[in-house]
Amino acid sequence: MTEATEDTERVAEAASVGTCPPSSVLSRPNQVGVLLVNLGTPERADARAVRTYLREFLSDRRVIEDDSLVWKLVLNTIILPLRPRVKARDYQKIWNSATGEAPLKTVTRSQALKLAAKLAGANGRVIADWAMRYGQPSIRTRLEALVAQGCERILVMPLYPQYCAATTATAADEAFRALMDMRFQPAIRIAPAYHDEPAYIEALAGSLRTELARLDFVPELIVASFHGVPQDYVRKGDPYEQQCRRTTALVRERLGYTERELLLTFQSRFGRAEWLKPYTIDTMQALGERGVKNLAVITPGFAADCLETLEEIAVENLEAFKRAGGERFAAIPCLNDSELGVRLIEQLVLRELKGWL
After folding, report:
1. The pTM is what?
2. How far apart are CA 138 and CA 157, in angstroms?
Protein backbone atom coordinates (compact mmCIF):
# COMPACT_ATOMS: atom_id res chain seq x y z
CA MET A 1 0.00 0.00 0.00
CA THR A 2 1.40 3.38 -0.98
CA GLU A 3 1.81 6.30 1.42
CA ALA A 4 -0.77 8.34 -0.52
CA THR A 5 -3.31 5.53 -0.27
CA GLU A 6 -2.73 5.23 3.48
CA ASP A 7 -3.25 8.97 3.91
CA THR A 8 -6.47 8.87 1.89
CA GLU A 9 -7.85 6.03 3.98
CA ARG A 10 -6.93 7.77 7.23
CA VAL A 11 -8.69 10.95 6.06
CA ALA A 12 -11.81 8.99 5.10
CA GLU A 13 -11.83 7.13 8.41
CA ALA A 14 -11.41 10.35 10.38
CA ALA A 15 -14.26 12.02 8.52
CA SER A 16 -16.58 9.08 9.07
CA VAL A 17 -16.22 9.12 12.87
CA GLY A 18 -16.42 12.88 13.32
CA THR A 19 -12.76 13.55 14.11
CA CYS A 20 -10.19 15.23 11.97
CA PRO A 21 -6.67 14.12 11.14
CA PRO A 22 -3.67 16.34 11.77
CA SER A 23 -2.64 18.44 8.79
CA SER A 24 0.37 16.20 8.18
CA VAL A 25 -1.90 13.50 6.75
CA LEU A 26 -3.99 15.84 4.64
CA SER A 27 -3.20 15.55 0.97
CA ARG A 28 -4.02 19.24 0.32
CA PRO A 29 -3.46 21.25 3.51
CA ASN A 30 -4.14 24.99 3.82
CA GLN A 31 -7.35 24.88 1.76
CA VAL A 32 -10.22 27.30 2.38
CA GLY A 33 -13.76 25.94 2.55
CA VAL A 34 -17.04 27.69 1.84
CA LEU A 35 -20.19 26.02 3.13
CA LEU A 36 -23.53 27.33 1.83
CA VAL A 37 -26.31 26.50 4.29
CA ASN A 38 -30.06 26.54 3.72
CA LEU A 39 -32.97 25.44 5.89
CA GLY A 40 -33.61 21.89 4.71
CA THR A 41 -36.26 19.56 3.31
CA PRO A 42 -37.66 16.07 3.89
CA GLU A 43 -35.82 13.28 2.12
CA ARG A 44 -39.01 12.11 0.42
CA ALA A 45 -42.44 13.56 -0.25
CA ASP A 46 -44.28 11.19 2.05
CA ALA A 47 -45.73 11.51 5.54
CA ARG A 48 -42.99 9.50 7.27
CA ALA A 49 -40.15 11.58 5.83
CA VAL A 50 -42.01 14.83 6.49
CA ARG A 51 -42.64 13.73 10.09
CA THR A 52 -38.91 13.09 10.59
CA TYR A 53 -38.10 16.52 9.16
CA LEU A 54 -40.74 18.34 11.20
CA ARG A 55 -39.68 16.61 14.41
CA GLU A 56 -36.13 17.90 14.01
CA PHE A 57 -37.25 21.35 12.87
CA LEU A 58 -39.93 21.95 15.49
CA SER A 59 -37.77 20.56 18.32
CA ASP A 60 -35.17 23.27 17.78
CA ARG A 61 -35.40 25.79 20.63
CA ARG A 62 -34.34 28.55 18.23
CA VAL A 63 -37.42 27.83 16.11
CA ILE A 64 -39.96 27.15 18.84
CA GLU A 65 -38.82 28.84 22.03
CA ASP A 66 -41.56 27.24 24.09
CA ASP A 67 -40.09 24.24 25.92
CA SER A 68 -43.11 23.60 28.11
CA LEU A 69 -44.78 20.25 28.64
CA VAL A 70 -47.87 21.66 26.93
CA TRP A 71 -45.93 22.36 23.72
CA LYS A 72 -44.30 18.93 23.80
CA LEU A 73 -47.73 17.36 24.22
CA VAL A 74 -49.15 19.35 21.29
CA LEU A 75 -46.14 18.51 19.12
CA ASN A 76 -46.21 14.79 19.77
CA THR A 77 -49.95 14.15 19.95
CA ILE A 78 -51.38 16.60 17.42
CA ILE A 79 -48.82 18.15 15.07
CA LEU A 80 -46.57 15.19 14.29
CA PRO A 81 -49.40 12.65 13.90
CA LEU A 82 -51.54 14.92 11.66
CA ARG A 83 -49.57 17.66 9.91
CA PRO A 84 -47.09 15.46 7.96
CA ARG A 85 -49.85 14.02 5.78
CA VAL A 86 -51.00 17.48 4.74
CA LYS A 87 -47.49 18.81 4.16
CA ALA A 88 -46.51 15.67 2.22
CA ARG A 89 -49.24 16.45 -0.29
CA ASP A 90 -47.88 19.98 -0.59
CA TYR A 91 -44.37 18.67 -1.22
CA GLN A 92 -45.70 16.30 -3.87
CA LYS A 93 -46.99 19.30 -5.83
CA ILE A 94 -43.49 20.78 -6.16
CA TRP A 95 -41.25 17.68 -5.92
CA ASN A 96 -38.40 17.45 -8.41
CA SER A 97 -39.16 14.02 -9.84
CA ALA A 98 -36.08 14.07 -12.08
CA THR A 99 -33.71 14.20 -9.10
CA GLY A 100 -36.00 12.70 -6.47
CA GLU A 101 -35.70 15.67 -4.12
CA ALA A 102 -37.25 19.00 -3.17
CA PRO A 103 -36.37 22.01 -5.36
CA LEU A 104 -34.58 23.70 -2.45
CA LYS A 105 -32.00 20.93 -2.42
CA THR A 106 -31.61 20.98 -6.21
CA VAL A 107 -31.07 24.73 -6.28
CA THR A 108 -28.70 24.87 -3.30
CA ARG A 109 -26.51 22.14 -4.82
CA SER A 110 -26.41 24.06 -8.10
CA GLN A 111 -25.52 27.28 -6.29
CA ALA A 112 -22.55 25.54 -4.67
CA LEU A 113 -21.38 23.98 -7.94
CA LYS A 114 -21.59 27.28 -9.82
CA LEU A 115 -19.88 29.11 -6.97
CA ALA A 116 -17.07 26.54 -7.06
CA ALA A 117 -16.61 27.19 -10.78
CA LYS A 118 -16.41 30.93 -10.19
CA LEU A 119 -13.88 30.52 -7.37
CA ALA A 120 -11.73 28.04 -9.26
CA GLY A 121 -9.19 30.76 -10.01
CA ALA A 122 -8.51 31.57 -6.35
CA ASN A 123 -5.13 29.80 -6.39
CA GLY A 124 -6.97 26.48 -6.44
CA ARG A 125 -7.45 26.78 -2.68
CA VAL A 126 -11.21 27.28 -2.31
CA ILE A 127 -13.56 24.30 -1.94
CA ALA A 128 -17.29 25.11 -2.05
CA ASP A 129 -19.88 22.77 -0.56
CA TRP A 130 -23.46 22.94 0.70
CA ALA A 131 -25.55 21.67 3.59
CA MET A 132 -29.00 21.76 5.12
CA ARG A 133 -29.67 22.80 8.70
CA TYR A 134 -32.36 20.13 8.98
CA GLY A 135 -32.11 16.92 6.98
CA GLN A 136 -29.33 15.91 4.62
CA PRO A 137 -26.59 16.68 3.85
CA SER A 138 -26.04 17.86 7.41
CA ILE A 139 -23.79 20.72 8.46
CA ARG A 140 -21.73 18.32 10.57
CA THR A 141 -20.96 15.87 7.75
CA ARG A 142 -20.05 18.63 5.28
CA LEU A 143 -17.76 20.39 7.76
CA GLU A 144 -16.03 17.07 8.38
CA ALA A 145 -15.72 16.49 4.64
CA LEU A 146 -14.19 19.94 4.09
CA VAL A 147 -11.65 19.38 6.86
CA ALA A 148 -10.81 15.98 5.40
CA GLN A 149 -10.05 17.74 2.10
CA GLY A 150 -7.52 20.00 3.80
CA CYS A 151 -9.65 23.01 4.76
CA GLU A 152 -8.06 24.69 7.74
CA ARG A 153 -10.34 27.73 7.38
CA ILE A 154 -14.07 27.48 6.61
CA LEU A 155 -16.61 30.19 5.86
CA VAL A 156 -20.14 29.14 6.79
CA MET A 157 -22.63 31.17 4.78
CA PRO A 158 -26.27 30.90 5.86
CA LEU A 159 -28.34 31.77 2.79
CA TYR A 160 -30.69 34.10 4.67
CA PRO A 161 -30.53 37.75 3.57
CA GLN A 162 -32.22 38.94 6.78
CA TYR A 163 -30.90 37.79 10.17
CA CYS A 164 -33.24 35.80 12.38
CA ALA A 165 -32.34 33.68 15.37
CA ALA A 166 -34.59 30.92 14.02
CA THR A 167 -32.57 30.70 10.78
CA THR A 168 -29.12 32.32 10.84
CA ALA A 169 -28.37 31.69 14.51
CA THR A 170 -29.43 28.05 14.51
CA ALA A 171 -27.17 27.37 11.51
CA ALA A 172 -24.26 28.85 13.47
CA ASP A 173 -25.26 26.85 16.56
CA GLU A 174 -25.14 23.62 14.59
CA ALA A 175 -21.74 24.45 13.09
CA PHE A 176 -20.26 25.10 16.52
CA ARG A 177 -21.84 21.94 17.94
CA ALA A 178 -20.02 20.02 15.22
CA LEU A 179 -16.74 21.69 16.17
CA MET A 180 -17.15 20.52 19.77
CA ASP A 181 -16.57 16.93 18.63
CA MET A 182 -13.58 17.65 16.39
CA ARG A 183 -10.03 16.91 17.52
CA PHE A 184 -8.67 19.34 14.94
CA GLN A 185 -10.88 22.39 14.63
CA PRO A 186 -10.66 24.59 11.56
CA ALA A 187 -10.95 28.36 11.90
CA ILE A 188 -14.60 29.29 11.32
CA ARG A 189 -16.28 32.44 10.08
CA ILE A 190 -20.05 32.90 9.95
CA ALA A 191 -21.11 35.23 7.14
CA PRO A 192 -23.46 37.99 8.32
CA ALA A 193 -26.88 38.80 6.92
CA TYR A 194 -26.88 40.89 3.77
CA HIS A 195 -30.29 42.55 3.86
CA ASP A 196 -29.01 45.98 2.78
CA GLU A 197 -25.96 45.03 0.72
CA PRO A 198 -25.97 47.06 -2.52
CA ALA A 199 -25.18 43.92 -4.54
CA TYR A 200 -28.20 42.15 -3.05
CA ILE A 201 -30.55 45.06 -3.70
CA GLU A 202 -29.26 45.38 -7.25
CA ALA A 203 -29.73 41.65 -7.85
CA LEU A 204 -33.33 41.81 -6.57
CA ALA A 205 -34.08 44.86 -8.70
CA GLY A 206 -32.49 43.35 -11.80
CA SER A 207 -34.32 40.06 -11.38
CA LEU A 208 -37.65 41.79 -10.83
CA ARG A 209 -37.23 43.98 -13.90
CA THR A 210 -36.41 40.93 -16.03
CA GLU A 211 -39.30 38.82 -14.74
CA LEU A 212 -41.85 41.63 -15.07
CA ALA A 213 -40.79 42.17 -18.69
CA ARG A 214 -41.61 38.50 -19.41
CA LEU A 215 -45.19 38.75 -18.16
CA ASP A 216 -48.12 39.11 -20.56
CA PHE A 217 -49.78 41.58 -18.20
CA VAL A 218 -48.81 44.62 -16.13
CA PRO A 219 -49.26 44.16 -12.35
CA GLU A 220 -51.18 46.92 -10.63
CA LEU A 221 -48.91 46.49 -7.65
CA ILE A 222 -46.28 44.15 -6.25
CA VAL A 223 -46.25 42.35 -2.91
CA ALA A 224 -42.94 41.58 -1.18
CA SER A 225 -43.68 38.58 1.04
CA PHE A 226 -41.20 37.56 3.76
CA HIS A 227 -41.38 34.53 6.03
CA GLY A 228 -43.04 35.55 9.27
CA VAL A 229 -41.93 35.10 12.88
CA PRO A 230 -43.83 35.54 16.15
CA GLN A 231 -44.11 39.14 17.35
CA ASP A 232 -42.63 38.02 20.65
CA TYR A 233 -39.32 37.16 18.99
CA VAL A 234 -39.01 40.73 17.73
CA ARG A 235 -39.94 42.15 21.13
CA LYS A 236 -37.08 40.13 22.60
CA GLY A 237 -34.63 41.87 20.27
CA ASP A 238 -34.54 39.91 17.00
CA PRO A 239 -33.72 42.41 14.19
CA TYR A 240 -35.57 40.41 11.54
CA GLU A 241 -38.57 42.70 11.04
CA GLN A 242 -36.39 45.80 10.84
CA GLN A 243 -34.16 44.18 8.25
CA CYS A 244 -37.12 43.02 6.13
CA ARG A 245 -38.48 46.57 6.13
CA ARG A 246 -35.04 47.94 5.24
CA THR A 247 -34.72 45.55 2.28
CA THR A 248 -38.16 46.51 0.99
CA ALA A 249 -37.47 50.23 1.35
CA LEU A 250 -34.22 49.90 -0.60
CA VAL A 251 -35.88 47.95 -3.43
CA ARG A 252 -38.60 50.61 -3.61
CA GLU A 253 -35.96 53.30 -3.79
CA ARG A 254 -33.95 51.44 -6.43
CA LEU A 255 -36.96 50.90 -8.72
CA GLY A 256 -38.85 54.08 -7.97
CA TYR A 257 -41.86 52.42 -6.31
CA THR A 258 -44.03 53.96 -3.60
CA GLU A 259 -45.27 52.09 -0.53
CA ARG A 260 -48.61 51.60 -2.28
CA GLU A 261 -46.93 50.10 -5.35
CA LEU A 262 -44.66 47.69 -3.44
CA LEU A 263 -46.32 46.27 -0.30
CA LEU A 264 -44.60 44.42 2.53
CA THR A 265 -46.27 41.31 4.03
CA PHE A 266 -45.35 38.26 6.10
CA GLN A 267 -46.32 34.65 5.33
CA SER A 268 -46.21 31.16 6.85
CA ARG A 269 -47.90 31.88 10.17
CA PHE A 270 -47.93 28.81 12.43
CA GLY A 271 -49.91 28.34 15.65
CA ARG A 272 -52.10 30.77 17.55
CA ALA A 273 -49.52 33.36 18.60
CA GLU A 274 -49.49 36.80 17.01
CA TRP A 275 -46.97 36.95 14.17
CA LEU A 276 -45.56 39.84 12.17
CA LYS A 277 -48.24 41.65 10.18
CA PRO A 278 -49.71 42.22 7.70
CA TYR A 279 -50.23 38.56 6.84
CA THR A 280 -49.69 37.73 3.17
CA ILE A 281 -52.77 35.52 2.84
CA ASP A 282 -55.01 38.22 4.34
CA THR A 283 -53.50 40.80 2.01
CA MET A 284 -54.26 38.61 -1.02
CA GLN A 285 -57.91 38.44 -0.06
CA ALA A 286 -58.11 42.16 0.74
CA LEU A 287 -56.53 43.15 -2.58
CA GLY A 288 -58.92 40.96 -4.55
CA GLU A 289 -61.92 42.35 -2.69
CA ARG A 290 -60.63 45.89 -3.29
CA GLY A 291 -60.75 45.32 -7.04
CA VAL A 292 -57.09 44.61 -7.81
CA LYS A 293 -57.04 42.28 -10.82
CA ASN A 294 -53.34 41.93 -11.69
CA LEU A 295 -50.71 41.15 -9.08
CA ALA A 296 -47.09 40.03 -8.78
CA VAL A 297 -45.41 38.65 -5.66
CA ILE A 298 -41.69 38.59 -4.83
CA THR A 299 -40.09 36.72 -1.93
CA PRO A 300 -36.85 38.58 -1.12
CA GLY A 301 -36.18 36.65 2.09
CA PHE A 302 -35.57 33.36 0.25
CA ALA A 303 -32.33 32.70 -1.64
CA ALA A 304 -33.87 29.67 -3.38
CA ASP A 305 -37.37 28.60 -4.29
CA CYS A 306 -38.89 26.15 -1.82
CA LEU A 307 -42.21 24.96 -0.42
CA GLU A 308 -42.99 28.44 0.91
CA THR A 309 -42.58 30.08 -2.49
CA LEU A 310 -43.61 27.35 -4.95
CA GLU A 311 -46.63 26.02 -3.04
CA GLU A 312 -47.64 28.55 -0.40
CA ILE A 313 -47.29 31.62 -2.62
CA ALA A 314 -47.76 30.24 -6.13
CA VAL A 315 -50.66 27.93 -5.20
CA GLU A 316 -52.35 28.84 -1.90
CA ASN A 317 -52.05 32.61 -2.19
CA LEU A 318 -52.90 32.53 -5.88
CA GLU A 319 -56.12 30.70 -5.04
CA ALA A 320 -56.94 33.16 -2.24
CA PHE A 321 -56.41 36.11 -4.57
CA LYS A 322 -58.60 34.66 -7.32
CA ARG A 323 -61.37 33.63 -4.91
CA ALA A 324 -61.53 37.26 -3.79
CA GLY A 325 -61.90 38.53 -7.36
CA GLY A 326 -58.33 38.73 -8.65
CA GLU A 327 -57.53 37.51 -12.14
CA ARG A 328 -53.84 37.44 -13.09
CA PHE A 329 -51.11 36.53 -10.62
CA ALA A 330 -47.35 36.07 -11.01
CA ALA A 331 -45.05 34.49 -8.42
CA ILE A 332 -41.63 35.94 -9.28
CA PRO A 333 -38.83 33.33 -8.91
CA CYS A 334 -36.17 33.73 -6.25
CA LEU A 335 -32.62 34.56 -7.33
CA ASN A 336 -31.88 30.81 -7.17
CA ASP A 337 -28.85 29.69 -9.21
CA SER A 338 -29.32 32.39 -11.85
CA GLU A 339 -26.33 34.41 -12.99
CA LEU A 340 -27.49 37.27 -10.77
CA GLY A 341 -27.98 34.98 -7.80
CA VAL A 342 -24.64 33.18 -8.05
CA ARG A 343 -22.75 36.40 -8.74
CA LEU A 344 -24.24 37.86 -5.56
CA ILE A 345 -23.13 34.85 -3.50
CA GLU A 346 -19.66 35.08 -5.05
CA GLN A 347 -19.35 38.76 -4.14
CA LEU A 348 -20.44 38.13 -0.56
CA VAL A 349 -18.10 35.15 -0.20
CA LEU A 350 -15.07 37.01 -1.55
CA ARG A 351 -15.74 39.87 0.84
CA GLU A 352 -15.86 37.50 3.81
CA LEU A 353 -12.72 35.61 2.71
CA LYS A 354 -10.50 38.69 2.86
CA GLY A 355 -7.34 37.89 4.76
CA TRP A 356 -7.73 34.18 4.09
CA LEU A 357 -6.83 34.19 0.39
Report:
1. 0.90
2. 14
